[in-house]
Amino acid sequence: MKSILSKFKTSDYKKEPFPHFIIRGAIDDNDYKILEQEYLLIEEYFKNQNDFSKNNVRMQFNNEDLKKMSLNIPIWKEFMKYHCSESFLDELINIFQSDIKQIYPNLIEDISRNKEKCSIKCQPGINTPVSKKTSVRLPHLDKTNTIFSGLFYMKDKGDNTDGGDLLLYKTKKKKKFYSKAELSNIDSVEVFDSIKYDKNVFICFLNTEDSIHSVTPRNETKHVRRLVNFVSKTHDGGSLYHLNRDKNYLRVVKNKIRDYFFVGR
């Protein structure tokens, strides 16, 4: 099983609206079919968990979780082992190197000195079936100690449901945040690009204070949304940047009320 980055081309890389790349057809067809076949067992595992009955919520597991599970998925075990390794981290650093040096001048040196403390996870997962049209996440940033975030989409060929696409946003003015890292003043950004939820597509980005993204709502469906989450954190858990918290409490309350109705739970 090759690296998910084996087909990366420099033309896949974009600096705007924040450093990211998209690889379509990331995995060779034969390997993808094997991963897809084993994913049926992963999906079956999730169906037996309590959270599966909830509307459009994320369920996933990582390498440590897998050690405690009795899933017969040898190819996924191999895939996850590599994509939690220093070698995979080195691949990502090499791709983003120029922008990392510009945005976080000391980060590569810090990682090089402390690679054993720089966690990287590969997490197969799903979003559960949709009983009420909702989004998984509205515009937000990932945690401030995240270096890289990636999503590998594995849409079922029988799934014709609209939605579940990834939106990337361009910053227009100063942003404000509430809750974890949800964008409060939505007028501070505009949609820059939309990456369709599809089969065999890998998206990865450098986490910066401008890396705003969201997931479009999914319509009612019995299908799950198949995805693999890749995430790398800073070695010491420290923040790469600081969030500007919204002090307009009325707006925050309105946002939370909206979230209650439009975000899967």
Explain what this protein looks like in three dimensions:
By secondary structure, this protein is α+β, with helices and mostly antiparallel strands. 27% of the residues lie in helices and 24% in strands. It has six helices and twelve strands. Strands 1-2-10-5-12-4-3 form a seven-stranded antiparallel β-sheet. The two termini are 35 Å apart.
Task: Summarize it.
The protein is of the alpha+beta class and 265 residues long. The protein is 27% helix and 24% strand.
What order do the helices and strands come in, and which of them pair?
Layout: E1 13-14, E2 20-24, H1 29-47, E3 58-60, H2 63-67, H3 74-82, H4 86-103, H5 107-113, E4 120-127, E5 146-154, E6 166-171, E7 177-178, E8 182-183, E9 189-195, E10 199-206, E11 213-215, E12 225-233, H6 249-262
Antiparallel strand pairs: 1-2, 2-10, 3-4, 4-12, 5-10, 5-12, 6-9, 6-11, 7-8
